[in-house]
Amino acid sequence: MILLTNHDEKFINILKGCLRECLECKIAVAYIRNSGVNPIITALENLQKKGGKIKILTSDQMGITERDAIESLLEIGAEIKVFVDLKKVFHPKAYIFKGSKKSEYILGSSNISRSAFFDGVEWNLFFDSSNPVAADLDKNFERLWVSSDVQVVNKDNLQSFFNSNGDQITNSFAAKEDAVIPGSPKNLKELIAKNVIYPVTKRADNNSTWNYNLSVNKVNKLLNQGPFYVIIHCNFESDDEIIFAISSEHLKSQIFPYSNQGKSSRYLFEISKRTLQFNWQRSIKMDGKPFVIS
């Protein structure tokens, strides 16, 4: 049995390793944030592609779980159930990874969030199926999974569980946990006149996001020439165009330090149409550093 504290060994590293090896993943957490889903979405998707199952128990209590995070998990085929017994508080934090020869378990304090996975003060016990607690954990998860205390979440009823009533609470919580970058008004014509123009490549959108890619080689070349802005145009289907200007200084300080040094020549990213939050994780280049630009 090993204690995980995010000090010597990051929770995220153990989690990704378990997801690579397992055939089925079961998770029970009180809340789920975009900042936690982003770093593991590729690993979960790979598990699903190789025929693995993903079962997740969570809650909408306190309005902390983000609708977009649940939607991302549903898109890759995860089975999700929400605790609906209003007389009880749902507060477990357990991760079960079932394998062909052995299974692994994490039980402790970590919800699905960036803070829990990377740098928060968290205490989790990591053990395998030889520990007698493992069988109890399996049994309790399955008991709750089939109980009347939980209900299935799908794309049709998603909004009824995670609706806009909780946005105020959620946004307040997000300001403390996610990296929210305060914006200042910029004159777009002045930006274009004073800076190099490099169009970001547009990819096909889906229902909830705008999608783009950014050439690593061109960005690195521009960084050597001096300060610049990346101009991103959104909302093409509407008369109300949305435009983001990301400074080279922000890219250097908030994006590139968190990027994986892979062979890919592009940073792929998406922007949530509802929250205007950037997600760089799906690029396979980024470890999931979400931020918001006003």
Describe, in plain words, how this protein is organized in 3D:
The chain contains ten helices and 16 strands. The chain is of the alpha+beta class and 294 residues long. It folds into two domains: 2-177, Endonuclease Chain A (Endonuclease, Chain A), CATH 3.30.870.10; 180-293, no CATH class. The strands form three sheets. The protein has an eight-stranded mixed β-sheet with strand order 1-7-6-5-2-3-4-8, sandwiched between helices. Helix 2 runs parallel beside helix 3. The longest helix has 16 residues, at 34-49. It is globular and about 65 Å long. The termini are far apart.
Question: Treating each run of at least 4 consecutive H or I residues as one helix, how many helices?
Answer: 10
Radius of gyration from the alpha-carbon trace, in angstroms: 20 Å
Q: Label the structural class.
A: alpha+beta
Count of DSSP E strands? 16
Please give the CATH architecture of the largest domain. 2-Layer Sandwich
Mean pLDDT: 78
Query: How would a textbook summarize the main sheet?
Result: 8 strands, mixed
Principal-axes geometry comes out as globular
Give the strand line-up of the largest sheet.
1-7-6-5-2-3-4-8
CATH level 1 name of the largest domain:
Alpha Beta
* SSE sequence, one letter per element: EHEHEHEEEHEHEHHEHEEHEEHEEE
Strand content: 25-35%
Helix amount: 25-40%
Number of domains: 2
